[in-house]
Amino acid sequence: MPELSLDYRNADNQWIVLSICGVFTGQDFGDVSGTITLANGESIDYHYAKDHYKFVPVNYEVTPEDQAAMDAGELFISYGSDAVEDCYMTNLTWVKDGMKYNLCGQDLALDQDGMVKMAEEVMSQK
Hints:
Layout: E1 3-9, E2 15-22, E3 34-37, E4 43-56, H1 64-71, E5 76-79, E6 85-96, E7 99-106, H2 112-124
Parallel strand pairs: 4-5
Antiparallel strand pairs: 1-2, 2-7, 3-4, 4-6, 6-7
């Protein structure tokens, strides 16, 4: 299935990616976080998530604190990096006209409201 990805990096070296692709039947994006009402009156539900990730070397031993956070759904550990790196991944996803849109960034200064405003700008483009 074709996909389009656009990367943007600002002067502070923060990056955000906009991905657009077709929606797979039965695809679940999680709980609805809110609704955006466009100028034409159309309402679009969106899904927002900010997740804590720890990238670790293959020989990393999970600490009891890591395990408790993972069990609570507050931390995701990914193996294979050269050093331990903590970051927060932010995603805002919506479906419009049969296409899935996803804004994604790492350690963004944008909060949920900022991400929603960016999504509104994307949706308002023709």
